[in-house]
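Students often ask why inverse folding is considered easier than folding. One informal answer: many sequences map to the same fold, so there is more than one right answer. In these notes we will look at a single instance of the problem. The structure comes first.
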């Protein structure tokens, strides 16, 4: 059985395209109560970007802080309950920020029409009805959350997405000018998320011509951005990285991620590491799985003088390491892709602990 891809309904790309937001959402205001809920990264609280969004007086604005932790099921439930109690069912949700904000907007859209705790819906096709209209405006490139068909949440038990046919954004605005102020380390770690998406997507049993085509083009762009003659943060590369992120996201969506993401989820769930950073910490030690790509990754680290911490595991307890291994073990779709359907005969829980002890 082949995967049916739910793709984004409408997309606009280009510098200044954020100014087209009103024309994209105003027709949607005829549905539900006419209000839009804006979820904006608190980083932009005093930025001119908020004015550019041109909220109407009836719209509702939340600044969410994603610095401390990645999106949680509790956070989504709190937002959903507050909106429904104080404002009613909105016409739609607009998310403006990084991957965490994209995931919040997608999850919130779904949970506004689904009752109960969102932790009950972490998994595949557990949500049974469409959410409200949702539009994403990424302000950092690399996560692929702008096009992915999952809304990753950390719950009381697991880090796992709400994944159903209505998760993907109805519309997205890709305006590279919004990414120019991203701090350098954050730019690098999040950009590497895309690089790793492509490598993992292509290295596993679900690889196919569709995911390879997007992955190869994305990798080409990543190389230009991170080790090419014109590498670094500049306008041309901001444009390229935004498209690399989109293509990398499409590549993994029609394939799967692998060992690095399985370990990264453990690091995020137990230690609270941010996704892009956690990926880099793990990928740096996965030469036996991803070969030359890890060497190329190290070149990129050196090229941008990124000082990735070493020997982190010496500060972790045995309990933390076994808890992280357990989180990874509970992501069989990633291990199946990376190692095959008989993955449990190729790696044990103890082996996974060993992978964490490398870091
Ligand atoms: Fe990722």
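Output (designed amino acids):
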């Amino acid at each position: 059985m082949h995967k049916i891809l739910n793709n984004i309904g409408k997309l606009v790309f280009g510098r200044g395209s954020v100014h087209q937001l009103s024309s994209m959402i105003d027709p949607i205001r005829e549905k539900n109560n006419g209000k839009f809920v804006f979820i904006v990264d608190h980083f932009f609280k005093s930025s001119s970007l908020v004015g550019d969004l041109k909220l109407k007086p009836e719209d509702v604005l939340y600044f969410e802080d994603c610095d401390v932790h990645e999106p949680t099921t509790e956070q989504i439930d709190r937002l959903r309950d507050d909106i429904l109690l104080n404002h009613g069912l909105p016409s739609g949700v607009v998310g403006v920020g990084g991957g965490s904000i994209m995931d919040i907007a997608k999850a919130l859209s779904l949970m506004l029409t689904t009752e109960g705790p969102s932790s009950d819906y972490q998994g595949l096709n557990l949500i049974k009805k469409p959410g409200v209209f949702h539009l994403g405006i990424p302000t950092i490139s690399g996560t692929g959350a702008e096009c992915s068909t999952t809304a990753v949440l950390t719950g009381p038990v697991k880090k796992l997405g709400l994944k159903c046919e209505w998760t993907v954004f109805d519309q997205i605005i890709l305006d590279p000018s919004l990414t120019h102020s991203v701090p350098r380390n954050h730019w690098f770690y999040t950009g590497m998320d895309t690089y790793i998406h492509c490598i993992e997507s292509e290295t596993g049993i679900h690889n196919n011509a569709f995911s390879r085509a997007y992955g190869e083009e994305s990798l080409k762009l990543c190389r230009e951005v991170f080790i090419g003659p014109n590498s670094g943060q500049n306008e041309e590369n901001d444009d390229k990285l935004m498209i690399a992120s989109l293509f990398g996201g499409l590549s993994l969506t029609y394939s799967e991620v692998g060992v690095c993401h399985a370990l990264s989820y453990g690091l995020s769930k137990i230690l609270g590491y941010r996704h892009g950073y956690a990926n880099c910490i793990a990928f740096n030690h996965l030469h036996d799985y991803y070969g030359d790509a890890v060497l190329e990754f190290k070149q990129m680290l050196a090229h941008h003088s990124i000082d990735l911490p070493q020997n982190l595991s010496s500060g972790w307890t045995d309990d933390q390491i076994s808890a992280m291994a357990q989180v990874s073990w509970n992501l069989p779709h990633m291990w199946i892709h990376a190692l095959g359907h008989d993955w449990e005969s190729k790696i044990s829980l103890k082996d996974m602990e060993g992978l964490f002890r490398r870091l």
